[in-house]
Amino acid sequence: MRIPILKLHNYLLISIQTDLDDQTAIQFQEDLLNKIHKSGATGVVIDLTSVDIIDSFIAKVLGDVVTMSDLMGARVVLTGIQPAVAMTLIDLGIHLQDVRTALDLEQGLIKLRQELED
Amino acid sequence: MDFKPCVNIQNEWDIVGARQLGREQAKEVGFGTVDQARIATAISELARNIYLYAGTGKICFEIINNLERKGLIIVAVDQGPGIRDISQVMQDGYTTSGGLGAGLPGVRRLMDEFDIVSDIGVGTEIRTSKWIRKGLGGA
Fold first, then answer.
1. Which of A44, B26, B29, B95 sits at a 20 to 30 Å CA gap from B130?
2. DSSP string, B22-88
3. Distance between B13 CA and the closest CA of chain A, angstroms
């Protein structure tokens, strides 16, 4: 299972539509970094609208993806985290500090544009 | 009520299988979407622990549905190496696998009851439950 990564101008858009297993998450991390490297993207939006479980492992992978992309010069915004998922993450003790988030894809793109054009 | 489905945990895809079955069970008991997410996430942590530390094991579900209360009991059993210091693994941030160390303490916060029994060289059994709060109608 591979998560598709779409390119739009300088941005990469990802919508995770599947229940993430560990292998898919790790593969996605690698694919995204390679795609940033090849495309020279400066911004990334990862939309999590369809994800209904984020456990500590998936949270770690997502947090790492944000940091790794940052190291490569691409800003990441996570969007569409469901209310139930946000509540569960806090119960788990995971705060995803320093991770940019936005309500939906549209807000995410606005946020990226503002940050990158400043 | 004696109906007890179990999921064998043998590889990492079984983690997904266990949490999907757990979510279905939680829905059947009447939990709302937030508690369904909490329960499925707790199962995910328990299943991954089995896979990472014991190799194989199983996760079983028990639905409690009587006049007094409704809830779901989850039992995670393995015949792995056991946990030497339980108080250590229950601390936030303690990990030997490079994870976040949020697993077991997280499960305890996500669920209502949490009980762990572990014997070195014999295995570990974790029993955890969540109850539907009266008056909330499972919302």
1. B95
2. HHHHHHHHT--HHHHHHHHHHHHHHHHHIIIIIS-EEEEEEEEESSS-EEEEEEEEE-SS--S-HHH
3. 6
In whole angstroms, give the CA distance from residue A114 to residue B55: 47
* 3-state SS class at B129: strand
List A residues 44-73 in contact with B (Cβ-Cβ < 8 A).
52-57, 59-60
Confidence check: pLDDT of B103 > 90: no
Q: Do B103 and A56 make contact, defined as CB atoms within 8 angstroms?
A: yes
Q: What is the reported pLDDT for B3?
A: 57
Pairing state between β A5-8 and B57-65:
unpaired
* Residue A111 CA: distances (Å) to CA of A6, B27, B37: 18, 36, 28
